[in-house]
Design goal:
With 168 residues, this protein is mainly beta. It contains 1 helix and 15 strands. β8 and β9 form a beta hairpin. The protein is elongated. 15% of the residues are buried.
């Protein structure tokens, strides 16, 4: 069997089991679902299994001219390597280095993961820090049940799926 990829990298999906949440957590999910109009707007999610990058090389060497590059994280398995664009770096956690020497970039856009800098030619630029994943609700419905009513009201009765939003 041969499979052809639909994208340049795989997408992430998350399944949140709501029966494991406290009543206050249910209220927060309901608020997020309404504020995001179901699956219309995305939001930031910390993927606790993969939220840090260390000494990740950017896609170009420094040229001595101003450059704007996308933060990325490389994943290697055997002979395969895929670059994942990092679009939601966490404010205050990003450090950059040229040939291992720390430097401050001109700007970091924490909503897109684009970094602008000028460094002398010939250097390898790396970055380290934390990042979130832009996700959206996969469905436009939330299920509730009176059978699971607690002192705080109705509880969600189905898991809610989130999927990575690659449009941001």
């Amino acid at each position: 069997i041969r499979r052809n990829p639909l994208r340049s990298r795989p997408l992430y999906r998350f399944n949140i089991v709501y029966r494991n949440l406290l009543p206050a957590d249910h209220a927060e999910v309901i608020a997020a679902f309404n504020a995001c109009f179901g699956g219309v707007h995305s939001f930031r999610l910390k993927d606790w299994s993969d939220f840090e990058a260390e000494d990740q090389q950017l896609s170009a060497l420094s040229t001595g001219s101003a450059q704007t590059l996308q933060l990325r994280k490389l994943y290697t398995f055997g002979g395969q390597t895929v670059a994942r664009p990092i679009r939601k770096p966490v404010t205050g956690t990003i450090t950059m280095a040229r040939n291992g020497v720390p430097f401050s970039p001109t700007s970091i856009d924490y909503t897109t993961g684009m970094v602008t800098f000028t460094q002398s030619a010939g250097g390898v630029i790396t970055w380290s820090g934390q990042f979130d994943v832009p996700v959206m609700f996969e469905d436009d419905e939330l299920a509730f049940s009176g059978d699971d009513k607690g002192a705080e009201g109705l509880f969600l009765t189905s898991d809610v799926s989130l999927m990575e939003d690659i449009s941001v």
